[in-house]
Amino acid sequence: MFKRIYPAIAIFLGIIFGAFCTLLTIRAFDGDSVKIGTPIGVHAATSAGNDGFSVATGQIDENVEGLFLLDGLTGDLTCNIVSVFNGKFFARMHRNVLNDLNLDNDKNTRLLMVTGAWSFRSQSGQMRPSDSLIYVVDSSSGNYAAYAVPWNKLVSNKGRQGTHLGKIELLDKGTSRDSKAN
Length: 182
Prior knowledge:
Elements: H1 2-28, E1 47-49, E2 53-61, E3 64-71, E4 76-82, E5 89-96, E6 111-117, E7 127-138, E8 143-152, H2 153-157, E9 164-167, E10 169-175
Parallel strand pairs: 5-9
Antiparallel strand pairs: 1-2, 2-3, 3-4, 4-5, 6-7, 7-8, 8-10
């Protein structure tokens, strides 16, 4: 008689233990710190480069990201944007940064580039700066500049129609080797 009762008790205790573990797991994931499937609003920009070339990504608006390329030899800064409709590059903006950084076509320039998040508040209308700034630094001279991509949200909505060309705008510049504020 005990041989028949012990397996039943073992199965019953196993079910109780499994239910207890399941409740603990559900309770652990029930807090605000972990919500599976809930967007958390993280935007990641990245950059890489060497002496000859730099590449970075940055947010243009809430639906569009830009690919920023900086040629360290020529000083050409370009932003390429992919259409949300067909996955093809459709917008391209350009600027040569050598004049902005007070550099000539010297072989001693060492250009670096990074992007950062930015929200320009006093702009109205369809045309506004991008949600990212592009920072370019010449590590040889210490000169730096900040740039923005002028962006029209309607261009993004019509991204499947042709190509959009534009110019990257200089916002400000300075030097890190100056003891006074710019």
